[in-house]
Amino acid sequence: MARTAHGPTTHADERRHALIQAAYQSIARHGLEGLRTREVAAQVGLDHSTLHYYFPTKVALIEAVAEYAVFQGLLVNVPRDHQEGSPAARLHEFLLTLQRNMREEPTHFLVLYELARYTPQEPALRELFQRQPFMTSWHRFLVLLLHEGIEAGEFRADLDPEIGASIFMTFMLGLGTSLFMPVPAGAEQMIEHLERWLRG
Amino acid sequence: MARTAHGPTTHADERRHALIQAAYQSIARHGLEGLRTREVAAQVGLDHSTLHYYFPTKVALIEAVAEYAVFQGLLVNVPRDHQEGSPAARLHEFLLTLQRNMREEPTHFLVLYELARYTPQEPALRELFQRQPFMTSWHRFLVLLLHEGIEAGEFRADLDPEIGASIFMTFMLGLGTSLFMPVPAGAEQMIEHLERWLRG
Amino acid sequence: MARTAHGPTTHADERRHALIQAAYQSIARHGLEGLRTREVAAQVGLDHSTLHYYFPTKVALIEAVAEYAVFQGLLVNVPRDHQEGSPAARLHEFLLTLQRNMREEPTHFLVLYELARYTPQEPALRELFQRQPFMTSWHRFLVLLLHEGIEAGEFRADLDPEIGASIFMTFMLGLGTSLFMPVPAGAEQMIEHLERWLRG
Amino acid sequence: MARTAHGPTTHADERRHALIQAAYQSIARHGLEGLRTREVAAQVGLDHSTLHYYFPTKVALIEAVAEYAVFQGLLVNVPRDHQEGSPAARLHEFLLTLQRNMREEPTHFLVLYELARYTPQEPALRELFQRQPFMTSWHRFLVLLLHEGIEAGEFRADLDPEIGASIFMTFMLGLGTSLFMPVPAGAEQMIEHLERWLRG
DNA sequence: CATGAATGAGAGTTCATTCAT
DNA sequence: GATGAATGAACTCTCATTCAT
Q1: How far is the CA of C54 from the C1' of E1 (A)?
Q2: What pLDDT tens digit does each residue of chain C (200 aa) get?
Q3: CA of B12 and C1' of E9: distance in angstroms?
Q4: Nucleotide nearest to D50 (CA to C1')
């Protein structure tokens, strides 16, 4: 039998994954506190009691969702996909990809935000984010990019890569938020304008 | 007898306000779906049934909270408080004030975000945000500021006020989000850096 | 100071009476178990807590209503009003009056039925109906009427006044019930037809 | 495996039926407004929350009870059971059976009355009674019986079958009411006396 | 007399969880 | 593995009642 890179995909694994996906969507719609196991199970076509076979408790399901969101979510993988071209071009591609993802699949941002939101009160979540510090690695990626761009003369010399990277991250987080608190200008326009500032 | 601008503050008014405040905090902590009337009432020292004396239904309470959040929240009044000084100075003060508010009282941002988040599914919320379009007025304030700054030669000539204003708004929304998904650089640092970009 | 036959009618007495009337209507609409003191008070334009000044408890109010219904209700007084004319004419008038009352003011029948309905479970009600045996006195009135009619040759000779009176009472009770479980024929038609049977 | 006319009686069906029965009794005792789901569930030996497994809402339970009462109740089936013998004999049997049912199982009449009582305010009930017009079919049965009796010379010639049928129906409704507002004469006596009038 | 404010018991309903099958 | 059935805690809301003013 064929094996994928994800290891042995049993029927049970598929079901588990489907449930996580369904919970993912539910959290995006109704928030973490609005999550209902019945709804999740129904979405997969299962009885709600059967869900407990795969996840003994609701918390276990949430943890699985969190794990999935943080390790498979959009923010993690994006940096790896933009390794070619000039620094400016790579930054541009990176920002646009991120923005496109957010707009087309707000779910990702919503769930991540929802999880992060309860971090102060939930040690388990805090620990999870520490185990997968995607914000840090994202930042590192941007710092490197900005650094290279400065050296290549593409970005203004007085740019502080550390702070610049943080600015772009904050701005992108803002783009996620602006899904619901919309600003007048379009995302692409803003990104282009920001990039011009970057050049000097 | 002395009267404040808020008119005669009866016992009932105070109680109502206290309940709104408590609900405000509750929503900030547990989200809109995690709001519990019992908890709100207990916070004010009331039996949960007494809450229904002031707000006939939970939805009525939420509406009052939404009204309060949108009309009294931090984002609305900030522009009015920064009318003096040079455009650059006023912008600086405005951004810093906003940032300080967010850091010291994350509640405001959280509740506003929570309300905005359910806007797609809740017509009542949509109508509320239309009635008080603080994002629009906030944007208008920034556009004017940038425009004046350009004319005064304080900001770079190639700046598009419309887009620039949107960028700053998005960035500030990101600052709110970064309360839970922290970026390495400090908010003040980032703001100063952005302002430098603005100058050219 | 003027005195009515009802004794000193103070402001309090009027209020009490108004509350009883309102409760009367409420019971007719929603049944005894559906009675709400708030609704009664509101009907009279009083705060619901003020009602407790006039009736310390809900049961006290119900008792007052029961007292009123049984002692002032339509069934009690009707016999006294039909003392003139031939037996057949008096019977006719009596039945028609009763029927008209029921149709125009179903409230009376409804409340009486509602009270009687809970007699098996409520000793207080049982005692009340024993104190005012309007059914018995109503029966006595009819027996007398039938007896006179037989002697006068207006009614068939083989009529048993006791049983005949009971039949008419039962039939009239049925007319009350048919307010909600309607029979095809009109009440007047049926009454006339019954009277013909009575004649022979 | 042998099947009854009621089809496969699953555990769930039995439970549902038991709950309907319990609600039936509860309505008879406390009225429609006095119905308590907790009491119904307890009667069947269930937790009150389990009731919602079988009936999603209280209204759904009431509707099931209404359906049962109207379609299975005593008044519906009685006519079918009296098809043999002379018209007079059949009428006699019919009336006596009805009366006996009412006395031995007042529940039926009480629930039916209770449902009919709220018909003016509840469109759903009105629709139900229109769907099963047992009063009409009952009337039709009686009209036919009286008609046959007249032709057979058993009943007086001047009898109007339509009106006569209505009279008997009204009288029987009155018998139901007299369960709580008793008349002196016995039901059998009255029925016999009425029949004598019928003969002429 | 009358009201505003508060309460606690109890109502219907939801929901995560358990268990026998 | 999967389901039907059951539970109990918790939730929103209602209602009669009380008490200070």
Answers
A1: 10
A2: 343 444 556 778 889 999 999 999 999 999 999 999 999 999 999 999 999 999 999 999 999 999 998 887 656 566 666 667 899 999 999 999 899 989 998 999 999 999 999 998 889 999 988 888 889 988 999 999 999 999 999 999 999 999 999 999 999 999 999 999 999 999 999 999 999 999 87
A3: 25
A4: F6
Find chain A residues with C-beta within 8 A of B170's C-beta: 171, 174-175, 177-178, 183, 190
Q: Which amino acid is at A37?
A: T
Query: Tokens 């603080």 — which residue?
Result: B134
Residue B80 pLDDT: 64
The C residues from 28 to 57 touching D (CB cutoff 8 Å) are: 29-34
- Spacing of C-alpha A106 from chain mean position: 10
Which of the residue ranges A24-33, A73-82, A100-109, C95-104 would you say has the lowest mean pLDDT?
A73-82
Alpha-helix runs per DSSP H in C3-121: 11-30, 37-44, 51-54, 58-72, 74-77, 87-104, 106-117
Contact D186, D141 (CB under 8 A): no
Residue range A127-163, pLDDT digits in tens: 998 998 889 988 999 999 999 999 999 999 999 999 9
Size of interface A-B (CB pairs under 8 A): 140
Long-range (24+ apart) CB contacts under 8 A made by A1-8 are: none
Cα–Cα distance for residue pair D145/A88, rounded to 1 Å = 100
The terminus-to-terminus CA distance of chain A in angstroms comes to 58
In A5-133, where does DSSP find H-type helix? 11-30, 37-44, 48-54, 58-72, 74-77, 87-104, 106-117, 123-131
* The pair of three-digit structure tokens given for residue B137, joined into one six-digit string: 């007025």
Q: Is B76 exposed, middle or buried (0-12, 13-18, 19+ CB in 10 A)?
A: middle
Tell me whether residue A181 is exposed, middle or buried, using C-beta atoms within 10 angstroms of its C-beta: 0 to 12, 13 to 18, 19 or more.
buried
Q: Tell me how far apart the alpha carbons of residues D114 and C64 are, in angstroms, rounded to a whole number.
A: 24
**Residue spans of chain D under pLDDT 70:** 1-8, 73-82
Q: How far apart are CA D108 and CA D129, in angstroms?
A: 15
CA distance B118 to A31: 9
CA separation for the pair D115, D117 (Å, rounded): 5
C-alpha atoms less than 13 angstroms from C-alpha of D55 in its C-beta half-sphere: 23
Question: Where does residue A81 rank: exposed (0-12), middle (13-18), buried (19+ CB within 10 A)?
Answer: exposed
**Alpha-helical regions (H) of chain D:** 11-30, 37-44, 48-54, 58-72, 74-77, 87-104, 106-117, 123-131, 134-151, 161-177, 187-199
User: Bridge partners of C7?
Assistant: C4
> Who among D119, D177, D184 is closest to C139 (CB)?
D184
Query: Mapping DSSP to helix (H, G, I), strand (E, B) and coil, where does residue C47 land?
Result: coil
Neighbours of chain A (3+ CB pairs under 8 A): B
d(CA B49, CA D52): 25
Whole-angstrom distance, CA of residue D137 vs CA of residue A176: 68
D60-91 exposure pattern, b = at least 16 Cβ within 10 A, e = fewer: ebbebbbebbbeebbbeebbeebeeeebbebb
Distance B125 CA to F15 C1' (A): 32
Query: Mapping DSSP to helix (H, G, I), strand (E, B) and coil, where does residue D4 land?
Result: coil
Could you tell me the two tokens for A69? 């969101």
Would you state the pLDDT for residue A84?
78
Q: Is C121 helix (H, G, I), strand (E, B) or coil?
A: coil
Interface list for A 84-113 with B (CB within 8 A)? 110, 112-113
